[in-house]
Amino acid sequence: MGEFLIIGGIGAALLLVLLVVGDVLEGINHFEAFGGELFSSAGLAGFIGALGFGGAIALSLTHSYPVAVGAGVVLGLLVGWLVGWLTRKIKDDESQPALRTASLVGLGGTVISDIPVSGYGEVRLFAGGQPMKINARADHPLAAGTRVWVSDVLSATAVQVQATDALEAGPEELQ
C-alpha cells in the first residue's frame, strides 16, 4: 500500500507545484497532438494523485493488487478528465475580454429609475450578455421604462443616454 501512497503523494505535490508555478510549466508540455488540454499538466497531476490514493483505498479494501491498480486507473482517468475539463473552462472564461466603460457607447437599455433634466437616474444595460445597472444622465427627462441607447461615457459609473425614439425621428423633428 505504501507504493500507492507514494504515487498519490507525488501527484498531489505536482498539483501543488502547478498551482504555485502556474502557466510556466504549461508552456513546456507538448501534448497538443493529443487534444491540448486533454493532457494538461494539471490533468496529469490529478490522474497521478487519484491513481495513487484510489489504488491505496482499493488495496486496503480488497487486498488485491490487480483490483487496486484497476480501481486506481479508473479513478485516475475520471479525476484527470475532470481536472482537464475544469482547466479548459477556467481558461475559456479568462479569454473573454474585460468589459470597459468606453465599450458601452451604442448599447441599448431601459431606464429603471427616472432621469431628471439636471440629475442622474439609472439604466439597465446588457453588456456581453450580462445585465448591468449604471447611473445615467439625459438631455431631456426620461421616465422609467423608456428604451434608451448610450451616446457617451461620462465616468466609470455614469453614461449619457438618448431615448431610442430620437433615433427614429427625422432630422427636422430633432431641431
Automatic annotation (TrEMBL):
Matches recorded under InterPro entries: NA-bd_OB-fold
Taxonomic superkingdom: Bacteria
Membrane-spanning ranges: 6-26, 38-59, 65-86
Keywords attached to this entry: Membrane, Transmembrane, Transmembrane helix
Natural source organism: Luteococcus sanguinis
Protein name: NfeD family protein
